[in-house]
User: What shape does this take?
Amino acid sequence: MFLPRRRLTVIALAICIAFSLWYFNNIQYNLRPLAPLPSSQDSLKQPQSPSEDFPVPKPPPQTPTQDHGTSGPVPPSQPAPPTGPKIKAQKSERYPVQSIIPLPGGTPAKISKIQHVFSIETSDDRAEREERLAAVKKSFIHSWQGYKKHAWKQDELLPVKGGYLTTFGGWGATLVDSLDSLWLMGLKDDFEDAVKAVEEMDFSSPNMEDLNVFETTIRYLGGFLGAYDVSNGQYPILLSKAKEVGEFLYGAFDTPNRMPVTRWKWESAPETKQEAHPNALIAEVGSLTLEFTRLAQLTDDPKFYDAVQRITNVLYEHQKLTVLPGLWPVIMDAQRGQFDDVGFTLGGMADSTYEYLPKQHMLLGGLTKQYRKMYEATLAPIMKHIFFRPMTPDDADILVSSGVRVNGNAETIVPDFE
Assistant: This one.
């Protein structure tokens, strides 16, 4: 069974194109220079409120996964195996925030609808659509039943030999990441069985030494929040677990510049002076905003928004200063808050940073212009440097996204079909 992915590159690219078309058709395109910002070194003492119209201010090695394929199936009735020692409570932060950046307030702005307007559905069209829906649901049920039989409450199913993989902390990533799909497909009994399993999850300690903060955020925090929202808040345990995950991950932001440790040695964190990684993937740093912002909105705790807004302010400050102004390189120095790398892409390791900009603008109700400005600033360099027209037999009018490396003053286009 494959884990539901929230940020496939195709989806990110489609969002970029759709939003761009809407933008060019509805708003006069005016790519103004970004306003000057205070130094990121001042960010702890002088947080900028996004409700104002600015000014504002080698990847780490992958942790090996654990293959438990030979250990036999884990039936639903059995509890998950122990996840290791409890993390020691951290009584206070080493680098506490002096002033919390608040969520923007006010009346949400009117945001134009960008969804396609479908024509009136004929009976044949409806039959075809419902047939496709049934096929998707059948495939999902098959995969879900396999997961329940062979890998219940584990991260990933090994679909051929049975058993499971521990890839995302060992708490049950597939279970949590599938909650919203179970609800949307009307599988309420399975949904409630999964919710019961959620109650037993203990997020105080993963069974991995190095925890991927980005993956944990999108799968667990995003999984709980998505399920809580689509089920209209009927299951409070989902929000409770989301806050539990958020509180745990908040420790990864306790660094001198409040940039997160993306591959986090969580167990030693309370006793060490941790710093963000000097070679961090831009997607793992820039793709935490939606989940932490939504958690702040639902819990009325602005510290979660503050954590990610500080990241956004650093991205904003440097957006016009990279070797491809308007875009951020795949690798950033999160320890110093610098963007000196020369590789750029809309594909893997970077895609969701761009994807989150219009989504965050909508989540905040358009109450800050920052995310819209940042998205606008990406459009021209994307069209100029990233998209290219491939050679096809019929000279089709299509564009393909590529990777770009900048060598001196010349650009080398890498035709990477992402």
Remarks:
- The chain is about 40% helix and 10% strand.
- Confidence is low (pLDDT under 50) at residues 1-64, 70-90.
- The longest strand covers residues 403-407.
- Residues 183 and 191 are 6 Å apart (CA to CA).
